[in-house]
Amino acid sequence: MSEIRLSDTLRKAIGAGTVPYALCGFWSGGVISITAEDSGIPGVFFQVTDVSSFQDSDLMSVHGLTLKKRLIAVNEVNVHGVVFYANSEEYLDPFLSLADYIFKKLAYTEAGSGGWLEVMGVMELWAEFWRRAGTRPQREAVLGLIGELVAMTDLLNVEKLSQEHWDGPRGGNHDFRTDSNSLEVKTCGTKTGPLSHKISSFRQLEPPLQGKLYVYSLRIELGRNLSRDFQSQIDAVRRIRTFCNSEAQAQIDMSLEIAGLSDGIPKQFSSFNVLESHLFEIDENFPKLTSQNLADGIVDVSYTIDLTNLKSKDQMITGKKFDLFTLGWS
User: Fold this and answer.
1) pLDDT, average across residues 100-117
2) How far apart, in whole angstroms, are the C-alpha atoms of residue 156 and residue 326?
3) Residue 210 structural domain
4) What angle do CA 180, 186, 189 make, to 5 degrees?
């Protein structure tokens, strides 16, 4: 299934000047639809499963957007859910950004229980994601970006890969994805010790509904006067044939901004070494928490995994490139 961008549907509704009820998709709680708000600006409605003691009420407001409980009538049937919308036209850009982000996270997945807390949790993740934009560069964010750039030059066959398949800067569940398969990049910033990685959500190691998920595990040394220049790595990705268009270049710029590097690369982050690189398939034996093994009542988790003892299952082939579409090597 090709990528669905909810923002495209919302822009059409805004451009038309009227916002009729429109079904957009489904998630574990039920339907996802566009609704009309009092201001005339569209809202995005998620039907939910937890309807006890339900009444209209605001849940949170952030970046000019509001999330609230809502009871709407669909074909003369009352439907319980939550809706988020822009408080005014001034906030349409973040509204459209959140619409795409939350749709990617929740639409067409069987994960979760379909409760309103899940929608609010994803909105909070989005708010935190953008809160970091424009801040001073943090070592962990820089390591994560380097890992994704290294994946594009060292691991992946990029002949068919485009910026649409790179979800890392947009905060997707997985850093790279095709219509079926996904790749998550994890970096470890210590020179020695366990090969450990932080996992921020149960969705991060949850394979696609159809296809496979792989983890590209890197141990990276970050500092000055090391073997690989960070700026040269950025330039190498900019020169990838399928990334030479303006949309891809803008996405690279956005990734630098999110990592706090829009004003340049500090000397302490100017170079790096890749000390280890491994590729693992996420199967039933891989250490992970997903919607399949979370206890009822747990909305989300963050945890750390140690892959030191899994190196024997490394699928890397030195000197070859991995095709995320076919899962072959060339």
Assistant:
1) 81
2) 12
3) 139-313
4) 170
